[in-house]
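Q: Protein A?
A:
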Amino acid sequence: MAVEFALVIPILLIVVFGIINLGFVFAQQIALSNGARQGARYAVVDDRTCTQIVSETRNSAETVGMTASQVPTPVISPTCSGSSKPCSGTTAGTNVTVTMTRSATWAVPFAPLFTSGNAPTLVGKGVMRCEFK
């Protein structure tokens, strides 16, 4: 009985840790996508500044295993910074794109499968059309 347990436990641990880690990575991917979409929507409504958009995007992407301070700074297109507004002075139908890229973190590091060197790169992207000029 002990021999069978010793043979099965490593495989069982890999499967269990794999399920836990993939759940965390999936939650981080969903949070990045939702945060980017929220940031894009926030950008096109009520003429918001880039600083406000970045703050809203980062706060919206917070999740399990990824606090607001760990959320990457979003890239906003058309390019803007500080107090500029991405929809101001644009032509009708201009899209605002918010993109966030981050390397995933494992909830349970487990060598050799779940190490920081083999964590996937996660990308969240949100696109919305400017509602005003």
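Q: Protein B?
A:
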Amino acid sequence: MTGTHKVPLALLRHTESPRLAGLNDEHLHLLTQTDTAFPPILVHRNTMRALDGVCRLHAAMLRGQKTVDAVFFHGPLSGVSPLRSGPTFPTDSH
């Protein structure tokens, strides 16, 4: 994984949450109501798909943001496993 980058929302794939339960509407609503900066989302670099932070991505869109902070994952998507608590990533992702 790499350092944090400002990524235009228009470049990111707007997908469903990789979590088995999907997006949490109540959590999304709470995120849209805060003025606090979000932690970076995790993005698969080759596909520009959000791997973690999909609620934060959707909240940023609803708040009218043009960019979001992101960290890129450079490994294969086959190395990502969605779980109820969030995706897991192999340690040898370089």
